[in-house]
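Record type: monomer structure entry
Structure origin: computed from sequence
Chain ID: A
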Amino acid sequence: MRAIDADLLICCECHQLNPHAPGAEHGHCSRCGARLHARKPHSLRRTWALLLTATILYVPANLLPIMAVNSLGKGEPSTIIGGVIELIQLGMLPVAAVVFVASILVPTFKLVGIALLYSVQRHQPMSARQRVLMYRFIEWIGRWSMLDIFVIAILVAVVNFGSLASIAPGAGAAAFASVVMLTMLAALTFDPRLIWDNTEAAHD
């Protein structure tokens, strides 16, 4: 049984369970006074708006230079893939692996994962367990989203030996950081309770 079936509403601010007053469209939390909603207002609309914006920015994030690696006075701005290749050529295999995972795999998994939650809106044949696992995976992987930005920041500070070797951030880093923040917000605006609403509706 869902809380809403028992006329209970959870506060999104302090997570206090509150009784739903009959006939009242909205109420206020008895603990913190926040406005109560049965579900996050316009959750799917906001999630889709953020996801589409992140998808659009993901293109320049991969096409624009994300950093410039200079070695012995030679070098030019590189995209994410180009930067990974250059790091491999410089013998920085662990750093290259971190940048590849954080810059390519993690954002792609997040975009695809959030898009798969579209099955909640379209009532596609996907079990609630699969949707919950996908949602938890997106939440878990979100903590690693800014890892490559931190790596670039550290490399810029550490690898600075003048004409011998230096690394500088590129315009693609700003676009990529925007993608990361937008996907994190998209995961936060999605209401996972919609997963169970869809399951209950399918069983009715």
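Annotation 1: The beta strands are 8-10, 17-19, 27-28, 35-36, 67-71, 77-78, 165-169.
Annotation 2: The first strand starts at residue 8 and ends at 10.
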